[in-house]
Each structure stands twice: as C-alpha cells, then as structure tokens.
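Ops channel
N.P.: pipeline sanity check, posting one input/output pair.
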C-alpha cells in the first residue's frame, strides 16, 4: 500500500472555470441626472447645459459609469446624448440604468470575448461561489455559449458538482 497522496481531481481532466476571473476590474460610479435638473424636478435646457459645462468630467476617468435619474422627471433623449458625449472621452463604459444593468453589461462584454472553442470536447466545471457580484444572467449566457463545444458542463466545486449538460 502506497502512502502517496493522489490528486484525483487534477488527474480527472476536469477544467474548472470561474466567471469571477472574467469580472472587469475598475471603479464603478453612478451619475444621477437629478443633479442637473432645475430644482431637481425638471429639465430646463439652459440650466441643464450650464450644469453640464460646470461638471468636472475627469472625475469619471477610467471608470465604469451607470447613469440614473433618482427623481421622477421626464428626461428627453437628447439629454442622454449630451451626457454620453461628455462621458465618452473619460469613462471606460457608460450604461443608462441601474448598477445591476451596468454589471450585467460588463459581464456580457467579457463573455463576448471568451474563447469557448478552446474547450472543445472538454469536461468543464463552472464555479459558483465568488467574492464579486457576478450577475446570475452571466451563468446562463456562459452555459448557452459553451454548450456546443464541451463534452460536459457542471456547476460547483470538483468535490460536489451539479451536472448541467452532458453530450450524448
């Protein structure tokens, strides 16, 4: 009997991936359009343009920005265009919506660049627990995109996986 410890997981040919590894690093910032409204209630073009001109847009340098309006105000489409135009030279990405919308879009972008074909015929485990806020939609998107390539796809850790897909 041998006292050698054998790592059966390493010898199994299983490949463990984590969506957390794809998570885009960088500062997240929220820009509230209510700050540009007249008395935080209504958009008046002249006031809006003046407040935009006074803003230090460099604050958003290299940040991922989600744009919201915390007040119940009617915002015309051109206002979003002006905000986008001002953020474009500075921000890495601009999304009009909640922080959750921003995180979903960032993960979608990361998943668009993932080399799924590199896993042709492989047995893959997708880790589920992470320290970063990986959106639930990312797991579904990843599954749909990698399924045509893999021999099997499981969720969890190597010691306790949930089978998701197995090629017949």
């Amino acid at each position: 009997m041998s006292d050698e410890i054998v790592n059966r997981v390493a010898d199994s040919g299983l490949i463990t991936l984590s969506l957390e590894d794809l998570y885009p690093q960088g500062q997240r910032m929220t820009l509230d359009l209510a700050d540009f409204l007249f008395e935080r209630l209504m958009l008046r073009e002249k006031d809006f343009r003046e407040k935009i001109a006074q803003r230090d847009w460099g604050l958003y340098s290299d940040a991922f920005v989600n744009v919201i309006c915390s007040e119940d105000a009617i915002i015309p489409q051109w206002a979003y265009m002006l905000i986008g135009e001002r953020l474009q030279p500075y921000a890495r990405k601009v999304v009009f919506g909640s922080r959750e919308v921003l995180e979903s879009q960032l993960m979608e972008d990361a998943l668009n660049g993932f080399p799924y074909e590199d896993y042709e015929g492989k047995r893959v485990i997708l880790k589920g627990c992470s320290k970063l806020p990986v959106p639930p939609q990312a797991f579904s998107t990843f599954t749909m995109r990698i399924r045509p390539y893999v021999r099997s796809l499981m969720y969890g850790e190597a010691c306790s996986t949930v089978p998701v897909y197995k090629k017949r």
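N.P.: looks fine end to end. The mean pLDDT is 92.
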